[in-house]
């Protein structure tokens, strides 16, 4: 490749990769910043979160709205944040009706919204692979990262 050309982000991995390796430290810092913004204002829009990240100067590069959305979606998948639509009333008063926004689920994923029972509170209760899980199989409690994280709690 010619020296004056820069490889595309599809090849390099974009902002999330450094020298071909996933930059988990950078991602975790951004996740923390996003979570703090949402927690601080109770309900936040993607634009508000992106502006807060930009103003905080936590990263040397300017993140796109799509990149900030990827970080927020990771928080949703980690059950630390939930995606909701604004009703325009109460805590949503400053957000237009129907606009997608984000709320924290308790304090760093613990507490907050009431659970439906004991089963959803353990990883096995909501695991889509439970039918394949066996004590000595490839998918097992011994190899389950979620189960280990839950036990460390």
UniProtKB/TrEMBL annotation:
GO cellular component, one term: RNA polymerase III complex
GO biological process, one term: transcription by RNA polymerase III
Entries under InterPro entries matching the protein: RNA_pol_Rpc34, RNA_pol_Rpc34-like
Domain of life: Eukaryota
UniProt KW keywords: Nucleus, Transcription
UniProt-listed Pfam families: RNA_pol_Rpc34 (PF05158)
The name this protein goes by in its record: SPX domain protein 1
Species per Swiss-Prot/TrEMBL record: Hibiscus syriacus (Rose of Sharon)
